[in-house]
Amino acid sequence: MRINRRHLLKATAAGAATLFLTDVRGGARAQSAPPTGPFVISVEAQNGWDPTFLTDPKVDAAFTPWTVEDVRTATGTTISYAPHIDNAGVKSVYRVGVDAQDFFEKHGSKLLVINGVDNATVSHDVGPLVAFAGSNREGIPTLAGLYAAARGSSLPLSLMTTGGFLSSAGLVPVTRAGNVDVLLGLARSNEANFTAQASNRRLIHADGAMALLRERVRLRDARRAALAGGVPRELAGILKLSATRSADMFSQYDALADALDEASAVASSNRVIPKAASVLAAMKAGACAAAHLETEESFDTHSDHDNIHPGSMQHLLEIVDFLIDTVANDPVLAARGALIVVGSDFGRTKYNDEDGKDHWPITSMFITGVGAAATLIDGGRVVGASETTLPGGGAANGIVARKVKESGGDVVLTDDDDPAGLTLSAGHVHLALREALGLTGEDVTNRFPLTSVLPQAPLPLLKRR
Fold it and tell me: 388 near 350, Cβ under 8 Å?
């Protein structure tokens, strides 16, 4: 679902009752072993980005203002990237971080770029589903939702979001990461001034009294459950609430609150970054397995493209830079690692009559593994490609995906008439992501097959075989 105010109100109306999940079909989930494996974070470039202004640059005046000299290649990689251009037409690079480094020189060796991806849609309603679930079929969980269900279903904040398109297919609840103070208030429900320094906080009830109150509520829930034993719906509701009040759950509050304190100190002119900090704080506390973030800057540049799009790209890369640096520099997060997947609804056409660009199905994605997750990809390279002309010549209205095939344990470009050739889709990328994350063949994954993707065997997109 695309998160908006109405969805947020519905998701948070029950307070802590929706903060923790139980199995409504018959009782509280049994406590499982602490999740292992990397965290998963997807980042949505809102409303359809233009890859020719980032990782798939073109020297063609119908598509971009770039010259051959403008297009750079990140040192030690095969990743070519477009420059930043300001409203005065001055070209530079996308600079990120406190030391204002070139994003691609800083992170290029860790990135896997996938160009020439056919999302097969130009719809804002369908595009994000394809990009982040690998299918246009309703009811398929996005990658973050699937991973949260498989690896973090018992966690208090298993799946978090700052907005954009996210679906768990009902497998786990979604927690909005829009305001750190809201999460702190839930984690410190017995403190009236929960955002104050520890020495200045005031308890609503003494610790001993609060413990007794919580125990009394648990006993009441047990009595109500016994009385409702013959009414499955009522019993399920009681059990759902009672699990949120368990001693095991309350013991996680302090660790989560302390991590959120760290996040609340993060300030940035990029308004997504403090929200991303709260997501990473929840992951560090062991409360969250996966998340989906969305840019606040839109890429839907049907007019005045060159004056708007670079600002949106800068906004996006600042978010990705923050995620990479925070995970890499935090020993707890780095030990688990994070797989970060960046994509968008679709790509964009060549320039229209209003100096803008319209919707186009061919797009790009890029992926990075940070910390322990670095081993999941072979970074510093590009898979797939596109052109600005049609096969056999002739101008195209948008970039045209090159055919690829598997050869020698790698995915390589091939001729359009090669019978082994295929056009990459987001589905191919998601099959590879599912395999890399160890989800292939698991029960929850088998419920949501990507049946339209051929071949069904994952291609060696992320790592060469």
Answer: yes
Residue at token pair 């797009």: 363
More confident residue, 445 or 13: 445
Q: How far is CA 35 from CA 118, 150, 195, 203, 403, in A?
A: 34, 10, 29, 32, 39
Q: How far is CA 276 from CA 87, 142, 308, 415, in A?
A: 29, 18, 23, 42
Output the six-digit token pair for 273.
């970054």
Return d(Cα 465, Cα 462) in angstroms, integer.
9
Looking at the predicted structure, is the pLDDT value of residue 230 above 50? yes
- Distance, CA of 39 to CA of 19 (rounded, Å): 19
Examine the pLDDT at 231 and tell me if it is beyond 80: no
pLDDT digits 0-9 by tens, 261-313: 888 888 899 999 999 999 999 999 998 999 999 999 999 999 999 999 999 99
Q: Which two tokens stand for residue 163?
A: 């907005």
Q: Which amino acid is at 38?
A: P
The pLDDT value given to residue 261 = 82
Q: Angle 262-267-268 (CA atoms, 0-180°, nearest 5)?
A: 140
Whole-number average pLDDT of the chain: 88
Residue 380: CB atoms within 10 A of its CB come to 18
* CA distances (Å), origin 116, targets 360, 400, 403: 12, 7, 8
Burial 6-29 (b: 16+ CB within 10 A, else e): ebbeebbeeebbbbbbbeeeebbe
Of the listed ranges 116-125, 143-152, 239-248, the least confidently predicted one is 239-248
The answer to whether residue 319 scores a pLDDT higher than 90 is yes
CA angle in degrees (0–180, nearest 5) for 206-209-210: 85
Q: Decide if 275 contacts 282 (C-beta within 8 A).
A: no
